[in-house]
Amino acid sequence: MSITRKVKGVGWDVSAIGNAVWGGAKLADILELIGVPKLTSCTQSGGKHIEFVSVDKCEEENGGPYKASIPLSQATNPEADVLLAYEMNGEPLNRDHGYPLRVIVPGVIGARSVKWLDSINIIAEECQGFFMQKDYKMFPPSVDWGNINWNTRKPQMDFPVQSVICSLEDMQSIKPGKVRSLCIHGFIKVRISGYAVSGGGRGIERVDVSIDGGKTWMEATRFQKTGIPYIADGISNDKWAWVLLELTVDIPQSTEIIAKAVDSAANVQPEKVQDIWNLRGILNTSWHRVHVRIGHSNM
User: So what CATH class is 22-134?
Assistant: First the structure.
């Protein structure tokens, strides 16, 4: 985004994502034990949000603790899979990932999955912490640091649909004399690999790939488990995890490869980063473009 206009944020490149198998207790079960039934949106005392407070202190909170919140309706919904996690990948949670206890809010930006959990509060209004009220909000391109009003936007929760090309693998076995043949025809066979993901538990309906800068499109194969076809929102698929994509195709020696995903709610990635520029520099989900130039020495 800073190529378009300077933003204030962390340079994540195309994105930052991780997948793990989390173990712990469902927050909906814990709340039920203290008298808050499942699928509750408001308690008798007016509580509508669940606030998570960390032992971690931060400068943005003037030395106070990091904190964030989610709606009570989400916290008490077993299908939302909000977890108080104490295990990761079959082992006790380590210190970097939030030992001894952290929150996992799947399908939501990572800023809400509070680490090093100290307390949980039922509150009437959403958390008023810095990272809920003055960060991680999506503003239109017309807003800059001179005219920003943080109160005009809600905190970012679900992350939007995204796809990323991670690798281009040469599928040709180059032998003596083969390079000349490839150069004459001008194409090389490659396997395009990457992932797509959407927030809120929405599946990936399709991933479109172009090898000519967006003039024509092909549909990539989607899967989560090798050899098992992926069906968006299928009961056997993991609605919170990424969906891997793959396409083997002949590409020109010089071209632009593009990927764009569509989720099960028909949300699609925007074409240009300029259309979604924002001063905080978050949620650049524009088409992922990879410029390819294959020279003789690379073959």
Answer: alpha beta
